[in-house]
């Protein structure tokens, strides 16, 4: 379909961000080099341009960070909750003030469209700090006893798909409850966490309360295994989550895991098709599908399969893929060459196994990591693309005839993070929602997030909840 | 007393899927009282018994988790009623098993009966305590509700053969989970007898399955079982607990680590209820009633 009219480029200015040529580790309130002087580069996934060089923390650096956090814990946990709250309110406000800068930075380092960092990531980051700030002096009313205590030092490892938002999900509740933290951002997206360190400085946060150690999986493993860490929180892949669960076995470390998913988006024959199509598109192509709760399996009632697919394909043809800083861009870059290779391999496998592959006509930029929005039809439950988490802009379409069949297929996965239901019939929504084994069920909507709303999985999607009153439990000795 | 009637011994059997099978292995082991006197031969359960129990527990999960909370409360209360009627039997068994005087054993049994009553009352309250609406910043109805985790393997406490057992089993099933329970290794008889009460309390078969034998031998396949969703390690020592927690990571079972309990008769909190609950959050747009935005 020819576009109705052409768009002129509308890039957001990157002049608002001043990225230094190199960054150290943020330990005990100071930026320092790694003990062994190791560094690694972080690139812009849309251009492969090197953005900065970042210190790679080894075991000695992790140990130094944990010691700093331990030292800071005594005073931080003894502060009146109302004082901790004010630090968090300050942080929330500074994030709001600097949100355009952080949005551009995040888009540069992650590759996701500015539309998303500006309208989704950053507002949620600020809201999350604002929400948990308010809990800091009200913990005795949260249902965890009259005077619930913090755990101590939290070791937190976060992924690259929502770098600053995942930082907020981890740090805000940890600090509100009186813990101190050592956080390891993802190897490919370290910059926003380092900018957050500067926000901590501006907020006057006592040194050692927040420590940021950059590095790869080895840095994360050292943090999780550190004997003086009391709490481990991880968001990432199910395979790594299982390894972490084995590592903390037999210790007293409290563990929460937010892992992978293979969310089913179920569309019944009475669903409003146009709204459902918007939900399906948002469900799998938001953030290039690099979302643990993505609706990566579309379950369509057989009678409307053709009609829905026509609408969906028409809509996909209007998505704009390209420069993530362009305000009109819908689909940005894949985060890394490694992730692109994984998506490519799984999509190729889908084709090899006999599923039918379709993508809209779509020109991919010549540099950077790109993958066109992709649909697979004629997919059965045995296909790899219907079972494995692809973590990319790839949607597998399956069909069903009865609500029971939809539920059975939706639940036929070791994961249990998210699901969607599209129907105009209220009782059917409630009946189906009731039977889905998933931590978040979006009905007639998808991919909605809020600091007050607990988020987390069933089964192999992990355990524990982030957000809301529930999110406090992970950081309290209860 | 030469005119004394010769008593009829009870054959202690497992309780699986609402039935009372022997171990498929045909094995038994000798159970003695605290002075070493023979009490009974208990089934020495095998890995296969453990797997059969998981199948039974999974089969029972749909109906039990789908039952109304009120109904589950009624059934848990019924268990207390049935126990009360057979109180003397359990007092004698607990006294033998734990080497307690009759009066001390009575306290244990009374506390166990009362524990069923406590949890019977929780079934239809826990959702209001731990769930609720979330005030999201947008036009959405948003509700978080607790749901049972699924099939829970329970290693009952080793020392407190009856009160400890009831204290770990009741909270698991109160919320709609089903359980595979490994009785105290040394003192399994009160647990095996509990099956007789459960079988006559309207509790659907398979909701609670009781195995006796070597804790480590039965627990290993349960901890590694892909269709078990959670494990309570109350009856494991430190080394076994670590080993089982590692095995449990394979399908990310929820693990309740063993904690020292001085006094099982103390009023429990809600921790054993919430340890085996998931939180499901359902969103729906609230829509709008037109330009005025008012329904009044």
From TrEMBL, chain A:
Keyword Oxidoreductase: yes
UniProt GO molecular function: oxidoreductase activity, acting on the aldehyde or oxo group of donors, NAD or NADP as acceptor
Keywords: Oxidoreductase
Segment forming the signal sequence: none
InterPro entries recorded: Ald_DH/histidinol_DH (IPR016161), Ald_DH_C (IPR016163), Ald_DH_CS_CYS (IPR016160), Ald_DH_N (IPR016162), Aldehyde_DH_dom (IPR015590)
Positions of the Aldehyde dehydrogenase domain: 32-477
Protein name per the record: Aldehyde dehydrogenase family protein
Family: Belongs to the aldehyde dehydrogenase family.
Organism: Streptomyces griseicoloratus
Domain of life from the UniProt record: Bacteria
SUPFAM superfamilies referenced in this protein's UniProt entry, alphabetically: ALDH-like
Ubl conjugation found in the keyword field: no
From TrEMBL, chain B:
Gene3D superfamilies: Aldehyde Dehydrogenase, Chain A, domain 1 (3.40.605.10)
Coiled-coil residue windows: none
GO molecular function: oxidoreductase activity
Cross-referenced InterPro entries: Ald_DH/histidinol_DH, Ald_DH_N, Aldehyde_DH_dom
Organism: Streptomyces griseicoloratus
Domain of life: Bacteria
Taxonomic lineage from the root: Bacteria, Bacillati, Actinomycetota, Actinomycetes, Kitasatosporales
Name the UniProt record assigns to this protein: Aldehyde dehydrogenase family protein
Keyword entries, A-Z: Oxidoreductase
Domain Aldehyde dehydrogenase positions: 24-255
């Amino acid at each position: 379909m020819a576009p109705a009219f052409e768009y002129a480029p509308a890039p957001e200015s990157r002049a608002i961000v001043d990225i230094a040529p190199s960054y150290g580790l943020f330990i005990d309130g100071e930026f320092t080099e790694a003990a062994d002087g190791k560094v690694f580069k972080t690139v812009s996934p849309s251009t492969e341009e090197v953005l900065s060089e970042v210190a790679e923390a080894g075991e000695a650096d992790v140990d130094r960070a944990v010691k700093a956090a331990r030292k800071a814990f005594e005073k931080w946990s003894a502060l009146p909750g109302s004082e901790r709250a004010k630090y968090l309110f300050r942080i929330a406000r500074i994030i709001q003030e600097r949100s355009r800068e952080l949005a551009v930075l995040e888009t540069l380092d992650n590759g996701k469209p500015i539309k998303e960092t500006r309208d989704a990531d950053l507002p949620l980051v600020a809201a999350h700090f604002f929400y948990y700030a308010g809990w800091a002096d009200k913990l005795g009313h949260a249902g965890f006893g009259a005077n619930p205590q913090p755990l101590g030092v939290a070791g937190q490892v976060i992924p690259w798909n929502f770098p600053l938002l995942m930082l907020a999900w981890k740090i805000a509740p940890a600090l509100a409850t009186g813990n101190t933290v050592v956080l390891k951002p993802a190897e490919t997206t370290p910059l926003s966490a380092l900018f957050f360190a500067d926000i901590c400085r501006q907020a006057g946060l006592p040194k050692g309360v927040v420590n940021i150690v950059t590095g790869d999986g080895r840095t994360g493993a050292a943090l999780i295994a550190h004997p003086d860490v009391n709490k481990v929180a991880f968001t990432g892949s199910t395979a790594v989550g299982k390894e972490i669960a084995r590592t903390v076995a037999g210790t007293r470390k409290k563990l929460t895991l937010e892992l992978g998913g293979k969310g089913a988006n179920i569309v019944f024959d009475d669903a409003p098709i146009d709204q459902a199509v918007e939900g399906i598109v948002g469900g799998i192509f938001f953030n290039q599908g690099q979302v643990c709760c993505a609706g990566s399996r579309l379950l369509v009632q057989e009678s409307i399969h053709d009609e829905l697919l026509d609408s969906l394909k028409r809509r996909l043809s209007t998505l704009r893929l390209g420069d993530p800083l362009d305000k009109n861009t819908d689909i940005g870059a894949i985060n890394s060459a490694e992730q692109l290779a994984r998506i490519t391999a799984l999509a190729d496998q889908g084709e090899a196994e006999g599923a039918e592959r379709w993508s809209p006509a779509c020109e991919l930029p010549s540099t950077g990591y790109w993958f066109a929005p992709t649909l697979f039809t004629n997919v059965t439950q045995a296909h790899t693309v219907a079972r494995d988490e692809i973590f990319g802009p790839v949607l597998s379409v399956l069909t069903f005839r009865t609500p029971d069949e939809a539920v059975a297929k939706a639940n036929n996965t070791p994961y249990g993070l998210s699901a969607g239901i599209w129907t105009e019939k209220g009782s059917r929504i409630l009946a189906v929602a009731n039977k889905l084994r998933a931590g978040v069920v979006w009905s007639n909507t998808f991919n909605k997030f809020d600091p007050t709303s607990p988020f987390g999985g069933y089964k192999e999607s992990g355990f524990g909840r982030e957000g809301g009153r529930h999110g406090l439990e992970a950081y309290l000795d209860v | 007393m030469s005119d004394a009637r010769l008593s009829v011994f009870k054959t202690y059997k497992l309780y699986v899927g609402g039935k009372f099978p022997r171990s498929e292995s045909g094995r038994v082991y000798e159970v003695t009282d605290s002075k070493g006197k023979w009490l009974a031969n208990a089934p020495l359960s095998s890995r296969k018994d453990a797997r059969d129990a998981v199948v039974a527990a999974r089969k029972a999960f749909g109906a039990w988790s789908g039952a109304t909370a009120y109904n589950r409360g009624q059934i848990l209360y019924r268990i207390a009623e049935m126990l009360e009627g057979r109180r003397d039997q359990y007092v004698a068994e607990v006294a033998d098993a734990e080497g307690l005087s009759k009066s001390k054993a009575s306290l244990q049994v009374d506390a166990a009966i009362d524990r069923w009553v406590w949890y019977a009352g929780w079934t239809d309250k826990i959702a209001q305590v731990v769930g609720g609406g979330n005030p999201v910043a947008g036009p959405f109805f948003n509700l978080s509700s607790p749901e049972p985790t699924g099939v829970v393997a329970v290693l009952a406490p080793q020392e407190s053969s009856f009160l400890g057992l009831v204290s770990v089993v009741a909270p698991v099933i109160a919320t709609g989970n089903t359980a595979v329970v490994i009785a105290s290794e040394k003192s399994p008889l009160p647990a095996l007898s509990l099956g007789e009460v459960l079988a006559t309390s309207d509790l659907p078969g398979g909701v609670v399955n009781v195995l006796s034998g070597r804790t480590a031998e039965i627990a290993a396949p349960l901890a590694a079982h892909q269709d078990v969703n959670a494990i309570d390690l109350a009856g494991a020592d430190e080394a076994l607990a670590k080993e089982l927690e590692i095995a449990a990571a394979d399908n990310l079972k929820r693990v309740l680590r063993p904690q020292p309990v001085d006094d099982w008769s103390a009023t429990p909190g809600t921790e054993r209820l919430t340890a085996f609950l998931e939180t499901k959050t359902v969103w729906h747009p609230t829509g709008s009633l037109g330009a005025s935005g008012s329904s009044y």
